[in-house]
Design brief:
about 210 residues; mainly alpha; elongated
């Protein structure tokens, strides 16, 4: 559905066909989800499932079609990872806002656009990260190098949006040295304060003795 990075973009008909296939997949998921939910919460599960299927089809079709049209826009010869994130976020916002506004009223237009824009951004970011890791593993395997094994926490810390970071031995050593320097500086300040207090006590004692 996307460009191959060399300027060979897909025609609109191919993009719409791909979007229809994705919409059919999401619509089927919506039908199953709506059927189960309808049996629990609705007296007419068939209608509930059909409405859910149509909504999910519209979301999948609009999102995938919009994303494809953005990525295959004339002149967009090379698609980068950031381009995919932008396209997924914009398409997600458009799909969520338009479908939410049409099916649930105007009050759901903005919340739907914001929510699905975030979904598109996060989903594409995670996919890009996993794809980059897979490419790296394939390149290492092709060169005969051993692929380093990482724990799940290490993989999570390697993500760009992760609040955690895995430190190397040198980085950890530098961090400890910085902390020791800070502690030494604080101790030096405390020693100076203690020395000043001692000098003030000596001055006070001297002045008391002189008065007597």
């Amino acid at each position: 559905m996307e460009t191959n990075g060399e300027g060979n973009s897909l025609p609109p008909a191919a993009i719409l066909l791909s979007a229809f296939n994705v919409g059919a997949l999401t619509g089927t998921s919506g039908l199953l989800f709506g059927g189960v939910t309808g049996l629990i919460h609705s007296s007419r599960p068939g209608i509930f499932a059909a409405v859910s299927a149509m909504q999910w089809f519209a979301l999948g079709f609009t999102y995938w079609g919009g994303r494809g049209l953005i990525l295959n826009y004339p002149g967009n010869e090379k698609v980068s990872a950031k381009d995919k994130i932008y396209a997924s976020s914009i398409a997600g916002g458009f799909a969520g806002g338009s479908v939410g506004g049409l099916t649930r009223g105007r009050t759901n237009l903005v919340p739907g656009a914001i929510m699905f824009s975030i979904f598109g951004l996060l989903g594409q970011s995670i996919y890009n990260t996993l794809d980059a890791q897979h490419t790296e593993k394939a390149e290492l395997a092709a060169t005969g190098k051993q692929i380093p094994k990482k724990s799940i926490w290490h993989k999570f810390a390697d993500l760009k949006w992760s609040p955690m970071k895995v430190l190397s031995d040198q980085e950890y050593e530098n961090m400890l040295k910085e902390n020791l320097l800070k502690v030494d500086a604080q101790i030096a300040i405390i020693d100076e304060d203690i020395q000043k207090l001692k000098e003030e006590r000596v001055k006070q004692s001297t002045s008391i003795q002189s008065e007597n």
